[in-house]
Structures are given as C-alpha cells and as structure tokens.
Specification:
With about 325 residues, this protein is an alpha/beta fold. Helix content is about 45%, strand content about 15%. It has 12 helices and 10 strands. The chain has helices at about 1-10, 25-35, 55-65, 80-95, 115-120, 130-150, 165-180, 200-210, 225-240, 270-285, 295-305, 320-325, and strands at about 25, 40, 70-75, 95-100, 125, 155, 185-195, 215-220, 255-260, 310-315. The strands form 2 sheets. The protein has a 6-stranded mixed beta sheet, with helices on both faces. Strands 5-4-3-6 form a 4-stranded parallel beta sheet, sandwiched between helices. Helix 9 links the parallel strand 8 and strand 9. The longest helix has 20 residues, at about 165-180. Bound molecules: pyridoxal-5'-phosphate. The site of pyridoxal-5'-phosphate has 19 residues, from helix 4, strand 7 and helix 8.
Length: about 325
C-alpha cells in the first residue's frame, strides 16, 4: 500500500465529503438475529446533499474537472438517480455549472430526488425515452451544442462507476481499516451492494492492496453474477492502470459475488427487501432505501442466519435517502 500512496497522491482529488464516515454497531439488529456484532459503515452520511456513496467518487471525478478546467458538467440517469442529485449538489458546492439529463418524462409532481433537484434550481433535461441509446445520443448533441458555444463540457460516464470514480472506494478500504485499528474492532466480513460495480471494484482492489484484512461479499442489486463480475473486472483493470499496479488475482478470487437477492433487477424489489425498509428504522432508527440497501441487508441477514457467524460483520450503507421519498 505504501507504494500505492505515492501514485494515489498524484491523482487530482477535491475535498467534498465529511470523511471519515461514522462506523458504529447495530446492537438491536444483532440481538434480534442472535449473531455476533454487526457494524454499519455510514456512507449515507458523506455530508453533501442527501449523502451517499457517490460523493466519494465525485471527489475524484470533479477533481479531474477542476484540474482540467472544464466548465460544465453533464450527468445522466433515471428520474430518481442518486448520482444526478449528488453531482448537482457537489457542483453547487464547487460553483460549477451542472446539467442533468434524465431518460423519461418530466413528472408533474416532483418527489424524492426530483424535488431536491428542483430546490437546488438544477438545469434539467428530459429525453422522453427510456432507451439508454436515446439518452446517450441526447448527451452527445448537448455536448456539441455547448462546445459550439465556446464551453468546455465534461460528461460523467457510466453512472460514475469508472476507474476514476472507484478510486473513492479504494480510499474507503484504507479508511475502514484505519477505523478498525483505532476502535480496536475486528471486522471480518463486509457486505456491500453491486450495481454497476464501482463501489465493489474499488473496495475489493483496496482490500487486496491492504493484504485482504476483510472478506467482501457483494450483493448484486441488478445484474447476474457473471455480468457483474465482468463489470467489476473491467473497473478493477482501470484502477490498476491509474494506480500503475494491477491486481495479482482476478476479481472472482478476491471476493464473493451473489445475485440471489436482486429480485427482478434494478428498482424491482422483493417482499423481503420491502419489509426491511420498514423494519430497520423500527429497530435501529436508520432509514434505508429500496433499490440498493434493502437488498444488501436481506442478503447479509440470510448469510448471518445460515452461518451463525459470531465474527464482526459490517454493512455498508450507501445512501440514496432522496430516492426513498419516491418509493412509498
Ligand atoms: C450508485 C449507488 C450504488 C452502487 O454503485 P455501483 O458502484 O454502481 O455498484 C449503491 N447505492 C446507492 C445508494 C447508489 O446510489
């Protein structure tokens, strides 16, 4: 890791989040399940907008924007995209112009992240199509228009799940290990979400560079195991290139990836995940949303019940609080 630090420090980064995020126990949940200590890493509390994992990624993505003097940031996602809202909030903090592009139609009544975007006074474009390729085409057009106006636009790629964005989670692995040492905690297993695989690839990479102090279980919320592995490997290769140090082993050899809790895919919940959205705040006073975090919680609980694990487990809360207000 020492070798890495030098390369890491040369990569542009801008401070946005309130890091480190808290790490604390969930005693009531552990008691209810009859298992050993369960910790929660609070990446829902990253300190900008409604909080969430994307702030860590944006420290590096917008770090590049500032270093290269781009003057407009274009970011795309579905109507309730956490990335769009957090990019807008971080750009506001940096005094950067930001344009949001959503597939879908403009909702009449704005709820959840849409409401937050409205409060921030965001520039929002609706593509009026749910097709990914229409949105991509729209952004390319917008990019050319802005360039024609003499602007220097930057496009946030692949939902921020890129090598650059994942650097935030390489750093998060370092942060978590330091917190464990400080608090004299023995965390064995970390449960994390796998969407496009940026969070997962970053943490797995960071963990490997630290000598694998943690076991990582990735719960897919969208794709099949094979596709998620492919996505994570691709991002891990990008990180290896950026940090000039490829992983010695393939991604599959460095973590467990499970797609049994993803329900019908992104945004399509299961009866159990739906139930835990209401149960966790009732037990611990902590809210989770229903696209990412509830599925990871269901996966973790299932593992803990089956393994009767007594070692320390850690649940990574990745935020998405804004979207919760559109889900019920
Ligand atoms: C984007 C997001 C994730 C997952 O990110 P990937 O890096 O694409 O796997 C998890 N949780 C929340 C709340 C998110 O917004």
């Amino acid at each position: 890791m020492e070798l890495l630090t030098e390369t890491f420090d040369q990569i542009p980064r801008i401070t946005l989040g309130t890091l480190p995020t808290p790490l604390h126990t969930m005693p009531n949940l552990a008691k209810k399940l009859g298992v050993g200590p369960i910790y929660m890493k609070r990446d829902d509390m990253t300190g900008v907008g409604p909080g969430g994992n994307k702030v860590r990624s944006l420290e590096f993505i917008l770090g590049e924007v500032v270093a290269q003097q781009y003057d407009v940031v274009l970011v795309a996602g579905p109507i309730q995209s956490n990335l769009c809202t957090l990019t807008a909030a971080c750009c506001a903090k940096l005094g950067l112009r930001c344009i949001l592009v959503h597939n879908g139609n403009e909702p009449e009544h704005k709820v959840g992240n849409q409401m937050l975007n409205q409060l921030m006074g965001c520039e929002v474009h609706y593509v009026n199509s749910t097709l990914e390729k229409d949105r991509t085409h729209y952004i390319e057009q917008l990019f050319h228009t802005l360039t024609g106006e003499g602007k220097h636009p930057y496009i946030v790629k692949n939902g921020a799940s890129t090598g650059v964005g994942a650097l935030g989670y390489v750093q998060a692995a370092v942060e978590l290990l330091a917190q464990c040492k400080e608090q004299s905690l023995e965390l064995k297993t970390i449960f994390i979400p796998g969407g496009n695989g940026g969070v997962a690839a970053g943490l797995v990479y960071g963990n490997a560079m630290l000598g694998s102090p943690f076991q990582i279980k990735v719960i897919s919320v969208e794709y099949s195991r094979d596709i998620l592995i492919e996505k994570m490997q691709y991002i891990a290769n990008e990180i290896g290139y950026l940090l000039k140090m490829p992983l010695a082993k393939p991604i599959v050899a460095l973590c467990e990836i499970d797609d049994r809790y993803s329900g019908g895919g992104w945004g399509k919940d299961t009866a159990e995940s739906r139930a835990w959205v209401a149960r966790l705040p009732n037990i611990e006073g902590i809210f989770i949303e229903n696209v990412y975090n509830s599925k990871v919680l269901v996966g973790m609980i299932d593992y803990l019940k089956k393994s009767k694990s007594t070692g320390g487990s850690c649940y990574l809360h990745t935020g998405g609080f804004g979207s919760l207000f559109s889900q019920y």
